[in-house]
Structures are given as C-alpha cells and as structure tokens.
Specification:
alpha/beta; Cobalt-precorrin-4 Transmethylase, domain 1; 16% strand; 6 helices
Length: 146
C-alpha cells in the first residue's frame, strides 16, 4: 500500500493531474478545511469536476484540515513548531476521519492534497503519519513533487 501526498503550489491543473496519473492515483483526498483557492481550478467544485473528467474520484475530508485559528496564527507568526503542536492536538481529535482514510487507503491508491509544495511544512505530512500509525507498517508514504 502506498499513500501519496501532493501540494498544488506552482502547478496548473493539467500538470497536477498528470503527476497524479503517472503515480497511479485513484482517489484525491482534499484535506483543506476550507477548499477554496485563488489558483484557477483548485477550489472544491472546480477540482472535483476536473478530477471526474480526468478519471479520478474526489473526496473532501474537511475535519483533517488545519482549523482557521491555527492557520491564521501560523500566517501571522510563521512559527512552524507552534503550528505543528497545535495541529497535532487537533488531529488527535479526528480519529473517525483517520480511520475512514485508513480504510480508503487499504482499498485504493489515494493522494492527500493541499496547497503547500513542501510536504515538510504542510499538515498533510502529519495526516499521512497518522494513517501510517494505523497500518502497522504496511504502508509506504510517497510525497510527490512537481
């Protein structure tokens, strides 16, 4: 089993879906709390329509997104350690969503998506680790890059 992650920062829709296709992704799992984007084609409605036209399934798991307050504090202070601590506290409360995601990952090739290109400074890294912890080591995580 492989769980991929990808940030769409710096990508257009065509390149984004090309990367997913090359990596045999079946389901896009949007883990943004608020799936809106200033980048054309990446807001929830447009992204889900593009996903369908490219042959992917699209799912939005809102509760795995970073809550607004945590996001805004990080935007203001850029303190990654503080963001991480607060987001991980939030993530501990999302066991139902993590279980759902783990079940999906065991059945199909899923890709966690968010904006940030660098997975090491994105909450999707923590979500992937939470799924990994549920699979007793039977999962590989592949952080895709543009």
């Amino acid at each position: 089993m492989v769980l991929t992650t990808l940030g769409y920062e710096g990508l257009d829709v065509e390149d984004f879906f090309s990367i997913l296709d090359r990596n045999k992704v079946q389901t896009i799992v949007d883990i943004r709390e608020l799936p809106l984007s200033r980048k054309s084609g990446f807001s929830k409605t447009a992204l889900s329509k593009h996903a369908e036209s490219y042959g992917f399934r699209y799912i939005h798991l809102r509760d795995l997104g970073a809550p607004r307050k945590i996001r805004h504090e990080y935007r203001d202070d850029e303190d990654w350690d503080r963001f991480s601590k607060r987001y991980l506290e939030h993530l501990k409360l999302q066991s139902t969503e993590i279980e759902l995601l783990t079940e999906m990952v065991q059945k199909e090739n899923c890709c966690l998506i968010c904006f940030e290109a660098d997975h090491s400074h994105c909450h999707r890294n923590y979500v992937a680790d939470a799924v990994l912890a549920q699979t007793d080591g039977g999962l590989m995580i592949n952080h895709l890059e543009a």
